Recover the amino acids of this structure.
């Protein structure tokens, strides 16, 4: 069967409103004067993964529920302007949106509008089956209603990855994603014992590869029962925003995976891409290209070779 798409991305389309604050946590005050201003732009997790994959030269198709509203227009325009195919299923509750408070050091606090998703939201199963049937791989974001599409993807025969973000290792909502994916990403932010969580995911689910990103501490890779650590790399410019770093990591890791690289090298791909993403202002949606990624990876490997 001809595979017309390298990666089918499910979920995670939406709009963020960026608010730069003087510090996080933000002390209570009656008001703040915000500079350089408040800006709304398209781009949430699924959008960023799609942009990252596309910039790396992978044929990418994005599927999600999007509203007939201004936010939906922004999402559709982002994909159209970047040349990324988008299948937009009508979302009765409207397009997903969030407010991101960004501190001077690039850290962020995200406030998600939980009213935009409904329990009755569903993807059209034949559409999912058709898109998965021509894809090499599916990356599934943990937004509603992506969990319901996991069995369809499995039946279609594609490999599956997911990002659990700041899962605490216990919230049951994330378990469907964690246990049905072949490749699992998550953040170590809320984990007391990252290794225990990684091994628990691998023992209970399908994943041979589980990765925990840890910001300035690099990342931890569990592959076939062996845990390894990948140190962070120096970003190519000042760090201005951590938003999208995990998505960039996942996109670059998937590039390596689909090219047959060993997971340890895939982790280095992700580390370099994530560091680059931290240098992109939160009001923009930029991603590292394949040529620059491979050049930077080669430099790091040379520096780290004894």
């Amino acid at each position: 069967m001809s595979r017309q798409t390298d990666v089918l991305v499910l979920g995670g389309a939406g709009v963020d409103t960026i608010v730069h604050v003087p510090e996080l946590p933000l002390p209570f005050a009656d008001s703040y004067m915000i500079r350089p201003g408040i800006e709304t732009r398209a781009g949430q997790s699924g959008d960023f993964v799609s942009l990252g994959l596309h910039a790396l030269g992978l044929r990418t198709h994005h599927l999600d529920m999007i509203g007939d509203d201004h936010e939906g227009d922004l999402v559709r325009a982002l994909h159209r302007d970047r040349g990324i195919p988008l299948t937009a299923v009508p979302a009765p509750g409207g397009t997903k949106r969030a407010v991101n408070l960004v501190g001077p050091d690039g850290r962020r606090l995200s406030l998600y509008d939980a009213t935009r998703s409904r329990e009755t939201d569903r993807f059209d199963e034949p559409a999912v089956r058709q898109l998965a049937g021509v894809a090499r791989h599916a990356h599934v974001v943990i937004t509603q209603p992506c969990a319901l599409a996991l069995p369809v993807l499995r039946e279609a025969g594609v490999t599956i990855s997911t990002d659990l973000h700041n899962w605490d290792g216990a919230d049951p909502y994330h378990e469907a994603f964690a246990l049905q994916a072949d490749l699992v990403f998550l953040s170590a932010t809320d984990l007391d014992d990252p290794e225990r969580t990684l091994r628990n995911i691998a023992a209970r689910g399908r994943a041979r590869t589980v990765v925990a990103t840890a910001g300035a501490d690099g990342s931890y890779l569990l592959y076939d029962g062996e845990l390894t650590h990948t140190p962070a790399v120096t970003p190519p410019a000042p760090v201005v925003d951590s938003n999208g770093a995990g998505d960039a990591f996942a996109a670059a890791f998937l590039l390596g995976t689909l090219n047959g690289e060993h997971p340890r090298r895939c982790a280095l791909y992700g580390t370099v891409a994530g560091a680059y993403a931290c240098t992109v202002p939160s009001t923009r949606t930029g991603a590292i290209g394949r040529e620059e990624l491979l050049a930077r990876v080669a430099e790091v490997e040379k520096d780290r070779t004894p």
